[in-house]
Design goal:
The protein is an alpha/beta fold. The protein has helices spanning about 15-30, 40-50, 65-80, 100-120, 150-170, 185-190, 195-200, 210-225; strands at about 10, 30-35, 55-60, 85, 130-135, 175-180, 185, 210, 235. The chain has a single domain, classed as 3-Layer(aba) Sandwich (Rossmann fold). Helix content is about 40%, strand content about 15%. Strand 1, helix 1 (about 15-30) and strand 2 (about 30-35) form a beta-alpha-beta unit. It is globular, with a radius of gyration of 17 Å.
């Protein structure tokens, strides 16, 4: 039996990296998948890669009107959303003293306000037994230079996970988070951070970056009935980076 057989799943930021890998895995497990994104190029590529297994919709995860319209469209087509993976996010790295306020605002808008809006507008569609998974980051547990905006937005998302889990528990809806460590995804290339990320490898006990498919497997676990007695949890998938010390 496939773990998401006939389930309706929505993935924000699902056109590349972790979101795309998760869309493919959800589809393999029997889900009817819809992914969103904003970049025309990655939307086009995703439509090719996901042809026949997922719908791809242009929608800004941090825009209230877009999120409300998306929820209405999914509700009209499917009636319910069994799994909501709030994956859309951006990275804006700079020292606090040199970061401009617009970059901070954009980080909070996409990384925190976006998931908040999605929970607000999709909750009515999620039935008892449904699951919400948020993508936080292991940076929310660390104090690292240059991560002031990103880590803060992800720490807020961790807090939102707990609040939403408490609010939706009586409805039988579980809310958990996956917290990836350094992962091989296109987001680093977009920001010109490939070498920076690779420089982190010596600090990872397992000695390598994570794969998008490995994070997707953790998301599948949290989204499925395999995690039926888990809510309010943050599953860290970081090769031991936040738990162990090497060297």
């Amino acid at each position: 039996m496939k773990r998401l057989e006939n389930k309706v799943a929505v993935i924000t930021g699902g056109t590349t990296g972790i979101g795309l890998a998760t869309a493919k895995l959800f589809a393999e497990e029997g889900a009817k998948v819809t992914v969103t994104g904003t970049n025309p190029a990655t939307l086009a590529t995703a439509r090719t890669e996901l042809e026949g297994i997922a719908d791809v919709i242009a929608s800004d995860a941090g825009n209230a009107n877009d999120v409300e319209r998306l929820a209405a469209a999914i509700g009209k087509e499917h009636g319910v959303v069994d799994v909501l993976f709030l994956n859309a996010g951006i990275t804006r790295y700079a020292l606090i003293a040199s970061m401009d306020e617009a970059a901070l605002d954009e980080s909070i808008r996409v990384n925190f306000i976006g998931p908040w809006l999605a929970i607000k507008y999709f909750t009515a569609l999620i039935p008892r037994g449904g699951s919400i998974v948020l993508n936080t980051s292991m940076t929310n547990q660390l104090g690292q230079p240059y991560t002031g905006a990103y880590a803060a937005s992800k720490a807020a998302l961790r807090s939102l996970t707990l609040t939403a889990a408490a609010e939706l528990a009586s409805s039988g809806v579980r809310v958990n988070a996956v917290s990836p460590g350094p992962t091989e995804t296109p987001i680093h290339a977009k920001q010109g951070l490939e070498q920076v990320i690779r420089n982190v490898i010596p600090r990872i006990p397992l000695g390598r970056l994570g794969g998008a498919d490995e994070i997707a497997s953790a998301v599948l676990f949290l989204a499925s009935d395999d995690a039926s007695f888990m809510t309010g949890e943050e599953m860290v998938v970081d090769g031991g980076m936040t738990r162990l010390r090497v060297g």
